[in-house]
């Protein structure tokens, strides 16, 4: 089962209850926020389905002539650098200009930033635009942080870090919390992390504190993952079971 037990070394424990997570989930479902995602070609479809299962309204365009309008009419925004081409590169720039104008909090997913200097440069240019939350796995955080602890990275960069893996850690440098929900099959399907980043962007629409938004998002993703893991036979059946579990989570009768 989920452990919300916070562990904090050099950071204050974040006490964030399951009830608070459920209440934010209800707010998200009631509000149905628009979340614009510039994301990679592998993750687009799954990410859109995950947001829809939660009750958010995804959009994904990267067209130069409309990206600013989409961002300005959205409540949440995600930049994911998993597959980069000229169109996405331009969209990231224009999208982040619009985010700045609109004062919107955004999430950065620096996919595979550990794999190429060009990607590291792009991720750092996105970091300079001050994401509210960076959601990444351990290899990606190591590349971005140059080996700093998660807390020091978050503090020095002025962001909330949502570091995922078998156990997730969320920290803003001052406060920290570990989230141990989830299932090993989550790492056996593509784009689970990418979709989790989009879910963080969704929760940022209903919670101003980025640390609480990230904690709630990863808790919800982890709980749905656990449920789906119990109900599926392998990666193939895990994906639809995960979408069903997200949809049903916390509703009457539980996620059954
Ligand atoms: N072994 C595991 N046990 C439990 N949960 C896991 C495990 N591996 C990953 N997860 C969960 O899966 C989600 C995605 O995390 P992960 O670190 O795998 O992202 P990622 O490497 O960025 O994935 P991708 O790039 O394929 O989208 C998180 O919610 C995380 O908690
Ligand atoms: C497989 C893959 N390659 C680039 S992005 C992506 C989706 C998971 O990050
Ligand atoms: Mg990833």
Bound molecules: adenosine-5'-triphosphate, 2-(4-methyl-thiazol-5-yl)-ethanol, magnesium ion
CATH topology: UDP-N-acetylmuramoyl-L-alanine:D-glutamate ligase
Class, according to the CATH hierarchy?
Alpha Beta
> What is the C-alpha radius of gyration, as a whole number of Å?
17 Å
**Number of helices, counting only DSSP H or I runs of 4 residues or more:** 10
The low-confidence parts are: 1-8
Number of strands: 9
What number of structural domains do the residues give?
A: 1
Helix content: 40-55%
Fraction of residues in β-strands: 5-15%
Q: Main sheet?
A: 9 strands, mixed
Major sheet: arrangement of strands = 1-9-8-7-6-5-4-2-3
Q: What would you call the shape?
A: globular
InterPro entries: Hyethyz_kinase, Ribokinase-like
EC number: 2.7.1.50
Organism: Stappia sediminis
Protein name: Hydroxyethylthiazole kinase
Write up what this structure looks like.
By secondary structure, this protein is of the alpha/beta class. The chain has one domain (about 10-245): UDP-N-acetylmuramoyl-L-alanine:D-glutamate ligase (3-Layer(aba) Sandwich). The chain contains 10 helices and 9 strands. It has helices at about 20-30, 45-55, 65-70, 85-100, 115-125, 140-145, 150-155, 190-205, 210-230, 235-250, and strands at about 10-15, 35-40, 55-60, 75-80, 105-110, 135, 160-165, 170, 175-180. A 9-stranded mixed sheet has the order 1-9-8-7-6-5-4-2-3, sandwiched between helices. Helix 2 (about 45-55) packs across helix 8, helix 2 packs parallel to helix 10 and helix 9 crosses helix 10. The two termini are about 15 Å apart. It binds adenosine-5'-triphosphate (ATP), 2-(4-methyl-thiazol-5-yl)-ethanol and magnesium ion (MG). 2-(4-methyl-thiazol-5-yl)-ethanol (TZE) binds near residues 40, 43, 82, 83 and 111. Catalyzes the phosphorylation of the hydroxyl group of 4-methyl-5-beta-hydroxyethylthiazole (THZ). InterPro entries: Hyethyz_kinase (IPR000417), Ribokinase-like (IPR029056). It comes from Stappia sediminis. Keywords: ATP-binding, Kinase, Magnesium, Metal-binding, Nucleotide-binding, Thiamine biosynthesis, Transferase.
């Amino acid at each position: 089962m989920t452990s919300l037990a916070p562990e904090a070394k050099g950071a204050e424990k974040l006490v964030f209850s399951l009830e608070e997570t459920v209440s934010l989930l209800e707010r998200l479902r009631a509000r149905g926020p628009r979340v614009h995602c510039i994301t990679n070609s592998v993750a687009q479809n799954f990410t859109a389905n995950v947001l829809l299962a939660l009750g958010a309204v995804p959009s994904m365009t990267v067209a130069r002539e409309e990206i600013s309008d989409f961002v300005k009419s959205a409540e949440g925004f995600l930049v994911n650098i998993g597959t980069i081409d000229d169109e996405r590169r331009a969209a990231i720039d224009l999208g982040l200009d619009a985010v700045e104008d609109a004062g919107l909090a955004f999430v950065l997913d620096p996919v595979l930033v550990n794999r190429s200097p060009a990607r590291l440069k792009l991720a750092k240019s996105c970091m300079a635009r001050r994401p509210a939350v960076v959601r990444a796995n351990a290899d990606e955080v190591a590349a971005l942080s140059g080996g700093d602890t998660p807390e020091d990275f978050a503090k020095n960069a002025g962001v909330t870090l949502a570091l995922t893996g078998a156990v997730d850690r969320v920290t803003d440098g001052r406060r920290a919390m570990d989230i141990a929900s989830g299932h090993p099959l989550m790492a056996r399907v593509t784009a689970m992390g990418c979709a989790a980043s989009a879910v963080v962007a969704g929760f940022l629409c209903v919670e101003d504190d980025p640390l609480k938004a990230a904690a709630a998002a990863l808790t919800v993703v982890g709980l749905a993952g656990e449920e789906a893991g119990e109900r599926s036979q392998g990666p193939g059946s895990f994906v639809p079971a995960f979408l069903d579990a997200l949809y049903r989570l916390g509703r009457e009768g539980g996620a059954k």
